[in-house]
Specification:
Residues 31-112 form the VanZ-like domain. The chain crosses the membrane at residues 35-51, 63-83, 95-115. This is VanZ-like domain-containing protein. By secondary structure, the protein is an all-alpha fold. It has one domain. The protein is 78% helix and 3% strand. A two-stranded antiparallel sheet has the order 1-2. The chain is elongated, with a radius of gyration of 25 Å.
Length: 148
């Protein structure tokens, strides 16, 4: 089952508005490629974390995130940016840095999620093996048996 984490969704929308302003405004910032890389890293990580999933659906979420963020948004943002603001110059390197940042964000999310699942499995197994039940002669179960 998939549920939506509302605070992450709100944060994603705010980040998207900020990224949209940076992308469509007629401003030129130093370190343009670094901004592209980290903006798409953050947006992809937020998109991935919007959905609270179980292990079986995480593969589907990874594929959807890859298609939507890494392939779709990374390429379409540069094309739309050129259409909306013709003074902006189309740059293939921007697309490459968008895709690289998005892919890096997805990899980080996948590694962290897999690590957390492995850790939870180990903790679950650890507590399962250490649980023992002991009944002493003074316990209430013994007293009830004696009365019968």
């Amino acid at each position: 089952m998939v549920s939506v984490r509302l605070p992450v969704l709100v944060l994603f929308i705010l980040t998207l508005v900020g990224a949209g302003y940076l992308g469509f405004a007629s401003i030129h910032l130093p370190y343009d490629k670094t901004i592209h890389f980290f903006t798409f890293t953050i947006l992809t990580m937020e998109f991935y974390l919007i959905f609270n999933t179980k292990h079986k659906t995480s593969t589907i979420l990874r594929l959807i995130t890859f298609l939507v963020c890494t392939c779709g948004a990374s390429i379409s943002s540069e094309i739309i940016q050129n259409v909306v603001n013709p003074s902006r110059v189309f740059d293939v390197y921007d697309i490459l840095f968008n895709m690289a940042g998005s892919l890096w964000g997805l990899i980080v999310c996948c590694v962290v999620q897999d690590w957390k699942m492995q850790r939870n499995k180990k903790l679950k197994f650890k507590y399962k093996t250490k649980t023992t039940v002991s009944v002493s002669p003074s316990s209430s179960i013994t007293k009830k048996l004696e009365k019968v």
